[in-house]
Amino acid sequence: MNFLNTLAWWQWTILAAVPPAIILLYFLKLKRQPIEVPSTYLWSRAIEDLHVNSIWQRLRQSLLLFLQLLLLLLIMFALVRPGWRGSEMRGGRYIFLLDTSASMSASDINPTRLDKAKDQISAMIDQMKSDEVGMIISFSNVARVEQPFTDNRRLLQTRLAQIRPTNRNSDIGEALRAAAGLANPGRTSQDATDFQVADALPATLYIFSDGGFTAVPDFNLGNLEPKYTVMGTEQPNNIGITQFTTERNPEKPGQTQAFARIENYSDEERKVEVTLLLNDTLLDAVSVEVPPNETSGVPFELSEIESGVLKLKIDSQDDLEIDNVAYAAISTPRLA
Fold first, then answer.
1. Which residues of 200-239 are buried (b: 16+ CB within 10 A; e: fewer)?
2. pTM to 2 decimals?
3. Percent of the chain surpassing pLDDT 70
4. Do 282 and 206 lie in a common domain?
């Protein structure tokens, strides 16, 4: 049994003094009524009645005192808010954190890391009992609550199926704070005597990610019990475009410079064909060799381009295709 104290120590002190005060008042109000008797034979009886002043005798003979003390004890018991709580409330409480960052589109596991994670979460939802609730949070560089707590397994499956990959990086901090806010509610103030806004509700936190996020400093899981499932290999076979920018020559507005950065995430040197297109028309193509776990810069000098959309792509068969293409827009230069 668990208790939630709602009174300060001095309030409990005053309340604890009430039962002795009630008992004391019962003895202070004890009055004897003079009665004339025809014989002294009854004096012995009167002497025996003096034992009424005994505490236990008095308590045995006063039903009203007993009821008053019982009511007071029930009030005191209610003020500590008793209740039974096991490790779960309403069955199990599950929070599913699903990484949707760009790296989760890697195909080092079939079909992709994200699809595999969704399959595992779907199987867990199917195994949920009728008294268990689940919640789904997706995250990349921002977190999104896809479905709040519900025991509707069909609704959870629908929301899970609607999750799509992104081309963003990964930051789990916001997702963890969203999950912790449900399991570790705050207080009405910093005063320890003030009671909580809501009771803390323990939950199991299932994290499905490839681990491509940074550590979250000074974070306390509190009532969350984390279970981390790593998706994919630690080092996928991948080379991708990590930067693609364009800039007009300030001295010659008709000329445009484009710059790309290609990063090799594998442990072997890679040689790729880099192609640049304007509105799907080929402008330039170069071969680039990138050392293992390093980057290489690729500059392009362009001229006589008024406006359009540049498309940069690399010819590579790797585990992550989403970073093999990048776009940049070129607008008409402003007249001075």
1. ebbbbbbbbbbebbeeeeeeeeebbeeeeeebbeeebbbb
2. 0.58
3. 75
4. no
